[in-house]
């Protein structure tokens, strides 16, 4: 992240953010060592990389808060929509699940890009769910967020897996390494994981408004033509045919629930909701409010034992790991 003499420092110290060093102080390239032809690259820091090239982590100097800087184009509606959703008048609504916008850094040498500063969160699914109540809590908040956005005439248009995040401040008290999320230090030290249920409620957030669209306040028709996001399976997805952007959001979030059903056992109670939200005919899908009410009704029909005492498992969880969780009071990190 060095800067040339011909350009101003993109992260001047007076701005209040400090980038994490990219390497440990004693780092040496793994390919220069004595075992360079047999080296296990996954055990070396130079194997680590951030696939999301538009983001990088940093420290806010005023309070040592870990943050993420996101590189965005000023030609899109992302910044104005993000600013609107996090405006003072909207922040007080508890249904607003928009990730907090901490700062906008305008780069001094261009007006084409800017940096958005957000809290350092984690993708909502990366830590294992242990109880049905934990899944329901996440879905309830995400649906609330969609209801809120739609009430304010905003279609997310990429309401998909990688754009749903969780605040891990109480679930992973030590934090995690941004480039190698399964570790605390970026090398091998795994972080301590606290069960979500024991620190509930866990806060969930919606991110990435690069494809979002803000309809006029008096709009009654939400048809839209434009590129799609991560989920290309939405039946009406097309660059040339108008589609209802709100029902598009419903399908995308519904497909997140379908994926959870594929990954976890014992989530069958959520299947009717997933089926309703992913109907091929957009007109047959519920609105965000109706989907939220369907989820609430589903939760109310579940017993306390089903919600908070019966374990749920990833279908690929081995018997040995299930035993450690169930009978040895362990909560190891799983990743398959």
From TrEMBL:
It comes from the Eukaryota. PROSITE patterns: PROTEIN_KINASE_DOM. Residues 1-326 form the Protein kinase domain. Gene3D superfamilies: Transferase(Phosphotransferase) domain 1 (1.10.510.10). One of its GO terms (molecular function) is protein kinase activity. SUPFAM superfamilies: Protein kinase-like (PK-like). This is Protein kinase domain-containing protein. Signal peptide: none annotated. InterPro entries: Kinase-like_dom_sf, Prot_kinase_dom. It comes from Agrocybe chaxingu.
